[in-house]
């Protein structure tokens, strides 16, 4: 078991989720007061700078307020937030008309005093504010800059740290660097390599700046520090986090170098590259600039965050060697930096700039990506559709890309020195070409058209059929649509579950068209399709749709399926018992969900406008909030949809129809709205890994066709945003540490959330979570963690398989050596147990067959025909004869059918114990034919036959079979044999058929037996007789579940059998006695006397269905039958021998202290076991007992053991030599004692001879006594002959009390 602490953090692939979280935090209502513009109050302090003091917080506030009051036409003072100790984070905005936003002015910012004890930046930025304001009307250069630039200056990002610092402290010894929580603000931003490593609550200053950056879309920025003199540019760290010397290059490296040079070349000291700082005299920087990471590694820095996530290019300027120099140096520092500060701002106007507008109405388009060919770093447009892309002089191809619009590229854009080149874009929206209602035929053609037109990303398939035999189509859209790709989540939309709620049906067709036509040109669509396997079912109820009418506002015609059942009340429910028969649409969807590792889903309905999340009902049946363990996750994904649909998010969806209905934020808990037992969304959550919500798309159920375009426009963004949610949370792989192969069905649990998910076939998993810190555990049978990982969203587990002795120590002694052929076969078993291996085998071994029932003569001829056509792999044996002298035949299939191969597992398939249920007989005949025909052609079948001894007994009761009648589903005619005996109650040797089977079973060489019967749809395991507990029940139940899980219907547990009163059987598996308890069954005999587990599979409700149904029954049972051939090769196998290598036959292998199997010729044994830990004990006369612990996997071939016995040199637990010596001494003593007694008796006898006449005088009395004694002995002997040695119930109870 693996147990790690998982920090919910960000990797480059999944940045979006983190920043959605950050923006949620920083834009929460509670922070609104921090964003409003601060009113300025008059200050008594003058506005003329004297450069003779540092401003503390109060003085800084007064100074800035005074300047803002004096220059209101170009200055506005506001706070973007507060520090830990409640000080305002002041920002002075300087531009023409600073109280309003207007297009065409790029935004620039300076941030100072991020480290509280680096104080020069704080002062020079105050001086810069005064300089820009006072020179505005005097110097044309300043006037032009202020008029055309939106300048923001923050003198102090860390006012608390400044208050703690001490003037003259050049090296920062007074601990004012960090904020009041002692956190370094320039190590606290989300990092591209490490994600978020700091709790947001400890750095309110950082959270405020993140909000500010995201809101303003700055173009260029400078972050001012102290401690040396240099301009540093991104990246500040690298993936390796090498402490220094590693150049970490960004996509805009040349541009960053240019910008850094602009600052350094205008700084008299910095441009020399030799700051001559006393504490680092040897430090020098070429041209006064450096790559940040090359200088030293800084994870979590602000400049990298600006570039990667903020649309903004930022460099860091170190202004002075001394962090907090004396006041006397302030004027000099201003003189050194004044020109650099102004020249750097001017560079916000280089490159290319322009607007992106909508082609139809000229509206500004926001968040459009501006892509420069050859530079893999994009920025996005602002709220006016404006963009500013800084570039060096040159020729560029520039593209504007927006979701929902056709991309536009302008080629060969010339960028010159100086002012930016203007380049505008006009984008035409992409939308479905035709809006109309599609009936079934129209929809089918639409799907086939897109499947044909886009084969590289589209795959069309059907999951089943409706009552009226319409296909339930699903369109998969992905870059590899036909298979599940490891690590790629599976997503689904299901629509039109209620036939008259049609908006979802049409939206799904619109979405298919939109995704297909925008793939490869739209970045968002391309990313979604490349990284998600999207399944779209446009109509779950095509029959109901055909009965519906356009214009239906709130009716019910067509709502239900053709059997008039509501499909959204037809799923098994956790609280209510669903009595309605399971509908074919429901069964098809349940099978579909069980067969795919879906992560997230939405069920699209109509009649309101809201997202409804689990649970849908309540155990009390009341309309009240019914919370699931993942309530927060469901609210998050529901909100993601509603927020993109303004009308839905408003919460008052259908005021004309339902004036009192209100849903806060457009979402609701299902049961709180109204109770829906048997709903699909709850079944998804409780029975699969999939989180599903139900989305009501509109107030009108079947709107007019002319209204469909507005539904698309309202929901397009929501539909895409909801798909994005599948990538939130954690994901990873659980693999075996030995060979790296994925472990399927491993459990992923989250501490505090009572809902687990499991890994898919290749070991990959996805677990949706809201942002936070979690303890994540991965567990699988017999495995434990070898590594722990923190701080990542991708969480991989490597588990180590346990294989030890009874003390938990690794097994010592001989271990089996495997040749390449054995390893290849083990790999084959694994492939067949995982993924689509078995499905592929079913497809690859399809044979043409016209099914019909075969009577005894035809059956015998068929079996003999197999032996004639396939003599090298078949052998036909007679087990005996029935009452009416029909031969009971057994067909053996193996590569050496006439030879005993004790090292191979032996499996028995039997059918026809009840003559009135002949389906099993026909299935086994076709199964035998399938194996024979594919032998030598299909490599998998060939290998399975070569490695297995297969015995098939198709008809145990041929006499009853001859009496049975086709199409009789419940008739008992033919159930019994010719003597009228139910053979499954007669395994006491009274009937010839059972005697024949008992002889076969007593061979004791079988590993597994599968019996086929009819009259139900369930797999049962021992015992049939009523017993309170079953040894090894876990294994027996598991074997039955393997069959049921590979059957398309059985595992659902919904038999639909009205004839036997059983409708809901969990997982389609039950103990046989719970179905129909009886004594003398074949299954029980096989367990008790054959030491072989046997399961009985009931293949269908009808005992003797029409022959036309045989093809369907074969299709349903072929995969389960093949799975048994695979399963018989699992568990544990091995050989028992002594130290000399001699095999020990008849040794007892005790499994978990109970069930026993015996070694056969060659010392071989094979036992099937459920996945998990098991204790194996080997016992043989004259040898020491051996114990081992093994771990069995659900997907790996049997564990091989070699058990070597030592001679047992103890007698009664004592050393043999001691026991022999003691026995010799005892015998000597007995002989001596006997001699003494004889001598004494001989001496006495001479004195008592005269006493014999007294005995003779009473001879008659003596003879009477002898006769009485004799009679008593005979009675006693007679009584012993029939004595019941078992304890009475009272004796047992008494013994148990003792």
TrEMBL record:
InterPro entries: CarboxyPept-like_regulatory, CARBOXYPEPT_ZN_1, CARBOXYPEPT_ZN_2, M14_CPD_III, Peptidase_M14, Peptidase_M14_domain. PANTHER family: CARBOXYPEPTIDASE D (PTHR11532:SF73), PROTEASE M14 CARBOXYPEPTIDASE (PTHR11532). Residues 559-568 have a biased composition (Low complexity). The active site is at residues 318, 696. GO terms for biological process: peptide metabolic process; protein processing. One of its GO terms (molecular function) is metallocarboxypeptidase activity. GO terms for cellular component: extracellular space. Its cofactor is Zn(2+). This is Carboxypeptidase D. The gene is CPD. Residues 53-348, 436-726, 852-1128 form the Peptidase M14 domain. Residues 167-176 have a biased composition (Basic and acidic residues). It comes from Sparus aurata.
